[in-house]
Amino acid sequence: MNSSTPRILLIEDDASIRRFVRLALEDEGWQVFEAETAKRGLIEAASRQPDAVVLDLGLPDADGKSVITELRRWSQLPLLVLSARDHEGEKVAALDAGADDYLSKPFGVPELLARLRAMLRRRQLVGTAGVSSTQIAFGAVTVDLATHEVRRGQEDVHLTPIEFRLLAALIAGQGRVLTHRQLLLQVWGPEYLDRPHYLRVHMANLRQKIEQNAAQPQYLMTELQVGYRLNLKPEK
User: Fold this and answer.
1) Which of 105, 153, 169, 197 has a beta carbon 3.0–4.6 Å from 186's, enabling a disulfide?
2) What is the tens place of the pLDDT at every residue in 152-163?
């Protein structure tokens, strides 16, 4: 097995779905480990050290969100949730618990592979760039997290303290979807959790300053009814 081959842990109690996902990933040349329960999944995650985890929420011995919470105590492995629970509340709860992405059942192989590749790319970018670096670049935008200087091309961009904290939170998310709750907590604090309109207003202002076309953003992306993410590598 090539050392660069992605190693994926699949935690899913439905044997037919496990087989479907395993075959799809193995067709890509990826290595797959399987677990049918939450308990076994956590053991496999610790012992196999996979590159990413695919997790079903409806496990026989525990809710999948508890697996996410436990895993996040000691690991930042990319984690994709697969679930038949497709309403927004479940997506938000899973993302708040620490999932990186959410895919509703039924799903297609191309979308599953695309989301896993995106998560693995983000992990690689973090590994090569180094999370300790204070300078971040995406497109024509450069951000210095230490000096709070922002430039778009050759022009200085003036951000308010709130706008800078919002941008810094999205950068720290490393391309993950951050829920409204997560951003309100990080940028404003717990007393502002019931004021999502603050987030909408400041995100609109930030887009006006960062994006070439605020009406068609390339970098500051909305995940409808869930939150926002920073798109580090938009499609050409």
Assistant:
1) 169
2) 998 999 998 889
